[in-house]
Amino acid sequence: MLAHIQDIVKEAQKGGYAVGAYNVHNLETVLGVARAAMKAKSPAIIQVSESAIKYMGLKPVTHIVSTVAKNVAAPVPIALHLDHGKTFNTVFECIDAGFTSVHIDASYLPLDENIKLTKQVVELAHLKKVWVQGEVGAMVGGHGEVGKKRIDIPKAKLAEVIDFVKQTKVDSIAAAIGTAHGVFVNEDVDLELLYEIKKVVKIPFVLHGGSGIADAKIKKAIKQGVNIINIGTDIKVAFSQTLIATCLHNKKETDPRVLLTPSIQAVEDVVVAKMKLFGSAGRVNFGDIKT
Ligand code: G3H
Ligand code: ZN
Q1: By the 8 A CB rule, do 79 and 66 touch?
Q2: Which pLDDT score, from 0 to 100, does residue 290 have?
Q3: Phi, psi of 183 (to 5 degrees)
Q4: In this predicted structure, what is the pLDDT of residue 238?
Q5: Parallel, antiparallel, or unpaired: how do β-strands 181-183 and 19-23 relate?
């Protein structure tokens, strides 16, 4: 059974830690995250982007995540979330498929249109008890991009974030605060902007672009009230670099399982490290759970 994201995030708010929202791309990355959650005794959010859904199919990915959660990681709460849904249709297909949380990312639109679309999504999603994440100030970069320097990392305007949350009634908020999708030497968390946002906006703050940020900064951001941290690129890099190395060392191997198993392990290792860093590790007491 998949957990509702609301229950996972409420515990994180109470405990003053963050839960990772990990982007998955195939069965192997789902297994890596679920095994990590078991090993670290940590809750986890598994999230899929529109392109991941296009690659796997909505029904297959929904079934893979719920079946793996139930059979590989039953004692730990795992929620399924749509990441950067750009349209009303995508969001509602995911809600129909059983997602308990969706991200409507209309940050590519002018603010008033972003507010209008996000409001429509919130009104309908709430009828189905689904959580909605909204976004102000578009994130730059791309999942999996690894670059030296990114000159344009725009930031959201404080007044716009406050107005957006008030008008849309979203359950969680993502806003550009200095990080980018991918790994870049000059991305950083603007702790002052985060502080100003959190002073007024009390709903959970979602830090996008979690890969490539120094551990010390991540810890400070969590102290200032970040409850969800998105990790995409670090998973892609761990999976793919391990796969490339495994294939190069086993050029005659014909069994995909032999070639893919080290990549599952690499994802598990990266995610366990994130769970420890975010403070979500050790939060599930297996002794309290009847399996
Ligand atoms: O939406 C997903 C995240 O924001 C991923 O960012 O690739 O920098 O970890 P990242
Ligand atoms: Zn993102």
Answers
A1: no
A2: 52
A3: -120, 115
A4: 98
A5: unpaired
